[in-house]
Amino acid sequence: MTTATTSPALYADLDRPSPLEALLGDPDDQDNPLGFASFLAADERGDLHQAGERVLDSYGLGAEFVPARLGGRMGRADELARVLRPLFRRDAALALGHGASNLVGSVNVWSEGSAQQQRMLADVLCRNGRIAAAYTDMSTGNDVTRTAFRADIRSDEIVLNGRKEIINNLARAEAVTILARTSDAPGSRSHSMVLVDMAHAPRDRLRFLPRYRTSGVRAMYLGGLEFQDCPLPVTSVAGGVGEAMETILRAFQVTRAVLPAAVLGMADQQLRTVTDFAVGRRLYRRTVADLPHARAVLTGAFLDILTADCLATTVCRALHLLPRQSSVYAAAVKYLVPQLFRDTVDELAVVLGARSFLREGPYGSFQKHARDLPVASLVHAGGTVCQATVIPQLPRLARHGWPVEEAADAEVFRLSAALPELDFDRLGVTAGRTDPLLSTLKEAADRLRGEPVLGALCGQLTEQLRSLAADCNALGPRDRTPLAGPVSFELAERYALLLAAACCLGVWLGNPDHPGAFLRSDAWLVGVLSRLTARLGLPPVAGADGVEPEVFVELIGRYERGAGFDLTGRRLA
Questions:
Q1: What pLDDT score was predicted for residue 142?
Q2: Where would I find the beta strands (DSSP E) of 456-549?
């Protein structure tokens, strides 16, 4: 039986920062030891922020990644993402090294590990220990099916041989989850997941490799580990022998949804930094924010953040409510949200101008976040890998899911509604034959048909869905596999954009009681749908550009009162 997990604090005390936000303090305060100036200095040194780590330990951040049934605080995927946003807002290196690595390294054990392995990992995290994840090889990158790292079972032992060169947090990890090849046979049953308790691994069979330096997230400790005939108990295998690929496909849905939703904190700060510049800098007897191009960029960035939050938060909720379908949804989030943020930051950099390159001063955090964002977005699965996850599922959804108008229940979109506890066992490896989230697009189009602007936008989107279905059904056999040509990847992108539009519509329709008047109005919805249809190459809808003034007023209002640019709009520190 699953336990309902509510979100009573989502709209409570919106004028007060979240607990972690308050603990970290105002990042713009020069005297704050956890401010941007201090994080920039640590980045220049290439060192993790030690004071920040101590504060996170006092908060007990590790418990956020442990399921509640094991004594932790992880009950809801959407809440976990919101908890992590203040950390990403300040420093991606700390967020990855003290946060994301623990999540990525543990989800497979929560999914398929033994009770003993789960208790061990829960103990490590709840006492602020570290976990590392070693899934990829340097030679094969994100193509984990080609890993050469070996694990051979011999009687009651499993013997590890090989190298894992790029492992975040390795030097301090008490446990490492490793993807290893346990068979030379082709297919998906040739890999296993191994949980290594570093305290009991024979050190004479291990060799730590030199640290890798990076251009982004420079304080992140990327190291390597070589195993030489390293024997471990056969009970170190997490899940069944040969079942790692299935485990990964299931468990990584959580990380693919949660981490992009958490990285939103970086995009929020980038917009905040440039807005601060734009309202304070004067050109031609006006502020930069008064110039049409700058105003359009700021407004567009705000709308893209709302789009990303609608998509990522809805899919985080779908992990609980639509677990059989969330495979394709999570992959779409991991592909599209980082792309939205990269484009947003590129446009904001134009407004900031030469200041976007400064490594110190009030705008120094911008260049740091701009360098860090691609690394933070990549974490264990790049966009191409996620598109390759979506592509094989599109023809089946086009034939069976999209013609059937079975829209998702409104509870998927209701931001404060209760959720059952996250159950890894219910997550499906593939999405099956239904697509409730995308079907929301057609339901919303029917409801909004009489609206002159929204109705026209929905009409464009539903026509695109029909076109997408026809193109997916026309794909040849090879183009339905990860070896597909460019046309299939373009279809996966169109799918992600339509899914984002459906989620935006669902959030707007599903939250009529949102405490923010702006989120109850249709101005932001028109704005986000207009930007999504533009990305789809569609012509602008008459009247859609009229919402920019209202969206800009909300942006400036949130900036002046120090509120977040996401769907919640809670006050920041």
A1: 67
A2: none
